[in-house]
Amino acid sequence: MNKIGxxxxxGINGLQKQKYVRDWIKNNKLSLFSLIETKVQYAxxxxxQNGLDLRDWRFISNATGHxxxxxxxxxxxxxxxxxxxxxxxxxxxxxxxxIHQQIDIIVTMVYxxxxxxxxxAIWDYLRIKGGNFASQPWLLMGDFNATQKVSNxxxxxxxxxxxxxxxxxxxxQAELHIVPYRGIKFTWHNGQAGxxxxxxKLDWVIGNTAxxxxxxxxxxxxxxxxxxxxxSMVIHLSEDHFHPRPRFRFLxxxxxxxxxxxxxxxxxSSLFMGPLFTS
Length: 279
Fold this sequence. Notes:
alpha+beta, six-stranded mixed β-sheet, seven-stranded mixed β-sheet, 6 helices, Endonuclease/exonuclease/phosphatase domain-containing protein
């Protein structure tokens, strides 16, 4: 079982949080993961790698120059080969290839901005790539900082403003679907109780039709919150996923053989006992 994780950890410079992340990776047997809202300086990425005790792993981030990394991706090179295709401050898109298994998927890790105007760049990107990646399995996961419907929120402001429709409309236009999930429903909590408590589903795992076809048994698990106000998410990818079979091809050169038509007639007229289709 291959597992990919993502977690809005809200800072990971402290040793205590690094221990929680290290245990999260180990306990869930992750082969690839993303940490978002890390607040790690570009120059300290190597220090983080040592702190997580993942010295043989590979890491990339969306940090440039003196910026802090909003998204960090790590993977076990014995399991996956990862190539970054594109990144901005709100997402990182990679091609993930299996080393020993037939795996070839596009993975986008998302960390949306707090304002609807800034998140518009995400929706535009998904609409464009929804067409570009239509024939290839595409998996997206992360903190989108957005809900899709009224029931995704509990407490706080219940007004459904027009910008709150952006995510759901984008999903339809990009032909993306929510990956089946279990565990925590509201993935973010404001840390308060009683009348002041607010909970929302801001973290999502979604995929396109090609992903659902190739990985029909895939599911996401949203784990209980502990050191972060966000729930971490782990997607389970079965090792016996669907492999598309090559199409039958008729070669015109077969007609050049004098014995082709007689042999074809003989085969079609022969008596066959057993199932019509075999694997």
